[in-house]
Design a protein that fits this description.
By secondary structure, this protein is α+β, with helices and mostly antiparallel strands. Helices cover 43% and strands 20% of the residues.
């Protein structure tokens, strides 16, 4: 009964499509094997100036799957145009598959829908290919015994010899390959003491004469950086990361000299005023903060150890006597 149901549906669809004959359907082969492709051709002749819509084919013919679609049109005489669609379908399920009528829209000269027409119905039967055995079922064969020949052993020995030679060559190559050149280690240049570095940078900044050029922000930015960098290297204070109040507080813990503390506070606050508040200092203010920077560096450098002259003379005398 289930096999006859698609046929009844097909007959009903055929009668519906014939009630309003429209788009002609031609199927290349009504009976195909599972996994085989079949071509469907839809064709309709319309007056010139009209056009035929293209349906959304992908899900119209399930469980048949769409592989390819081609559409075209050609003139038929002076007043008619033939519109055609070629579809290639494939089936992976056996049975009778109905090609139901497809709705097409007809557009007039003003690109408006003037009519809706249906295509003819169709039927595609899909079956399994039959496998025929000429001699019927054949018995299972016994296990085949393979005899060794002298040539088989010889080929095995030759292959083993080639592998051993290849391994020997690989070991020889790895042991005797050229050593990679040793990279030259560049001598480490000792860094200058923080005091010397700061004095050189302050001297260079003074020679740039930024205040005379009106570059106050650049002048105070470099001066603030030199001072902070010196404090960081000299006293191991994270001066480049701290705020001005934090630097002043940290500096007060490493020195109790009031003049040094006031000089640093004045320098950093003046620099912040110019950099962030966009203040315009005088030339005297620029010279003042430069002098304060030199004063801080000069008076916080490590003190040189005093040598005992008498002890040095005694040491020299001992060396002469020896």
């Amino acid at each position: 009964m289930k096999k006859l149901l698609p046929l009844f549906i097909f007959i009903f669809s055929l009668s519906v499509s014939e009630a309003k004959q429209s788009v002609r359907l031609h199927i290349d082969s009504a009976k195909i094997e599972i996994g085989e492709a079949v071509d469907l051709h839809f064709e309709k002749t319309l007056p010139k100036g009209n056009s035929l819509s293209t349906p959304y084919w992908d899900t119209l013919f399930l469980p048949l799957e769409l592989l390819n679609h081609e559409s075209g049109q050609k003139n038929k005489g002076a007043d008619s145009v033939i519109f055609s669609h070629k579809l290639q379908l494939i089936a992976f399920d056996t049975g009778h598959h109905i090609i139901l009528p497809v709705d097409f829209y007809v557009y007039d000269n003003n690109n408006r829908i003037s009519d809706t027409i249906k295509s003819e119905a169709g039927l595609v039967s899909v079956y399994l290919a039959e496998i025929e055995l000429e001699d019927g079922h054949r018995p299972i064969k016994d296990i085949l015994n393979i005899s060794w020949a002298i040539w088989d052993i010889l080929f095995f020995l030759i292959g083993l010899l080639i592998i051993l030679l290849a391994l020997g060559f690989l070991v020889y190559y790895l042991q005797n390959r050229k050593r990679k050149p040793v990279k030259k280690v560049e001598p480490i240049i000792p860094q200058k003491p923080p005091y010397e570095e700061a004095i050189e940078m302050l001297t260079a900044l003074r020679l740039k004469d930024y205040p005379a050029k009106g570059s106050f922000k650049l002048y105070f930015s470099e001066l603030s950086y030199i001072t902070r960098n010196y404090l960081e290297k000299r006293f191991e204070i994270d001066a480049l990361e701290l705020t001005t109040p934090e630097i002043i507080s940290s500096f007060q813990r490493v020195t109790d000299e009031e003049k040094l503390q006031l000089s640093l506070a004045s320098l950093l606050r003046t620099a912040d005023f110019v950099k962030f508040a966009k203040g315009i200092p005088s030339v005297n203010d620029c010279d003042k903060v430069m002098d304060q920077a030199f004063y801080i560096v000069e008076n916080t450098k490590p003190k040189e150890k005093k040598t005992d002259k008498k002890g040095e003379e005694n040491q020299n005398q001992k060396e002469k006597n020896s």
